[in-house]
Request: fold
Amino acid sequence: MRMVMTGNYASAYGAKVSRAEVIAAYPITPQTSIVEKLADFVSSGEMKAKYIPVESEHSAMAACIAAATAGARTYTATSSHGLTLMHEVLMWASAARLPVVMTNVSRAMAPPWSVWVDHMDSVAQRDTGWLQFFCEGNQEVLDTIIMAYKVCENRGIMLPAMIIEDAFILSHTSEPVDVPDQELVDSFLPPFDPELKIEPGRARGFGSLVRPDQYMEFRYKAMLAMRDAHDRFLRVEKEFKQVFGREYGGLLDMYRCDDAEVVLVAAGSVAATAKDVVDALREKGQAVGLARLRSFRPFPHEEVRALASKVAGMGVLDRSYTFGAAGAFFTEIKGSVYSCQKRPVMKNYIAGLGGRHITPKILEKIFEDIQLTTKRGGGDEVEWVDVAGLPRRWR
Amino acid sequence: MGRRRRAAEEVALMAKTTIPEEEFAYPGSTGCPGCGANLVMRYLLKGLGERTVLSIPACCWAVMPGYWPSNCLKVPILYTAFEATGAGISGLRAAFDIKGVEDVTVVGFAGDGGTVDIGLQALSGAAERQTDAIYVMYDNEAYMNTGIQRSGATPWGAWTTTTPVGSTREYKHEPKKDIMAIMQAHGIPYAATLSVAHPEDFVKKAQKAKSIKGLRFMHAMSPCPPGWRLNPQLTIEVARLAVDTHLFPLYEIEGGKLRITRKGKGTPVKEYLKIQGRFSHLTDDEVDAIQKAVDERWAALLESESKGT
Amino acid sequence: MTKSYEEIPLTPISDSPSTMNMTGLWRAFRPVVDISRCKKCTLCWKFCPDAAITLVDGVPVIDLKYCKGCGICAHECSAECIEMVKEGTG
Reply:
């Protein structure tokens, strides 16, 4: 059924048609309408689930972990400080090999307080062993939730996944969204049936103490699962297209990259804007393309390297900063590109922190800058965009 | 080694076991010799039976079942993060309910630190949500698993590694957090104190708790020989003295009404304190202060019982 | 010998009884029961933290593979018929 809805409602509907059985809910701006909508679904009887109004995000994730261990399909949602509060148990969920699915409405960290979009909270979880999908539109949010359950509940994967919506830009902006029929989703997504689950009458301990000579092999297995999730995700998306008629370009969604001389890599809603900018610049004869980083985990090594080997210049837009060498995406992409025989000129643009707008005009200037830097054969590797007090004007 | 005399009449009464014989624990747990927590679990499971699922956070009991793949219990265990017991039992109960798994007793089994300090929020949340589960706090009165550091449940006057006595006498100067009062304030249907020196009372309360729905809270005193600087053979004796001195009274609160389940002899608290090295630095005045606090609390408990609150 | 990553489950599942842990090796003192004076009061069985005592016709049988020698049974025995004897002697 086609409706007009916000990204948050798309998340709620995604959890609903995926038949999530245990929902742990703690409110935080701008996720609140997700948990409110789910409360509606459960109280009206539309959704057969247990709704636990937990008293913190840490407990939200801990409750999902317990419920998933007992064999229930679980869902929760959070943002920013809620996500970072969960950090300890995010690591637990993935190391316990539990396919919890969560929406993170990506929002800036405090202080200063900000409710607006950036990706610091999300990328700070990249070491937790969670699959991470950045969405550019509301339909994608709903669809990726369904796909995530299918990818993650596979017995060879069994890792948790977060679906990332940009704060306010997706969470609170309405778009037309098709909510698939329940029967169709049921045909695509079977019930959760784990190999191992805690049950009364079976004396097993889950997650016990191990010695140094026992630990590393468990981590190795988790790494293999994340690696295998790459191919598994592509297969699931292909099947999704067959059943529902929609697809999103795999793990690295390439827009007009085939004959591009320079490309910009970006994630989230800004990528949608950048696609329009690509069209406008192409009209002017510039050979530019946009590669949307849809999956940060699993990291699309093959796709990134293939693209890097083809283009002369690659800009990476980060809505985050790692306080290391550069933004999170740039750091990992550059690391991946190192092993290519032919490498492009690369530059990192730190933009849009705390919800600062990344306008089409700014994106045009970024594309211009990539081209200029490529022609020069390099230059400053990291540039902060639109910071008052820096000499360069972007607006 | 020490011996203990018992009246002949008492001996004659005990012809067969006074608690269920079936064991739900194997030998080979890696708890210390004389570990009170081993007994807390042993008696608890005798009362709750086979269809019990435990949620255990970081604490001695996360380690005592042994290194993987060793499990010293005949029931399943979900190990969780430290502060998450209240959330763990909430998630387990929700999952069992939605999956239609019947006849399962969900139990959170946590230490004092993991309950009154870092775990208090999640416990409070689970209680407020009227989660259908039993929460057992085994109280050895410090963070014992990590090496005897003070917790909110460490009693006034105790030595711990983070409240060492030293020349400035910096032993613990704050009173013990009253977790039973905190849980009573949540309006839960059942709360009870348990002692390893009184297994019959213990098992009866566990069986009663099992029959009640909602969040049930059990506070079990768990003597710890290394942490209390106690001769391990005195674990039961110190627990017995705790009850007899009224320092750790045995009572239950059912539907808001308090009932003392064992009056205790009223032995001077000095008898309890003097067998534990962790109190050996206390002066007579300090022991008197403890006696006074114990007497006041006991009087308040008696008054509470008579008022029916 | 560490198990291969291919042979282990996704997460450590503890499903073997703890009887693999020979905690009897910890002992400094071991309990010796004088059965002739045992009153079959069952207190020793009741108070053993390690469930290392079984009752056979009401009389304790202490499993020395696991007994840690804590001495609770000796201390609580109503007949005073359990003695803690230093390991490596008598």
Summary: The two ends of chain C are 38 Å apart (CA to CA). The CA atoms of residues 5 and 11 of chain C lie 11 Å apart.
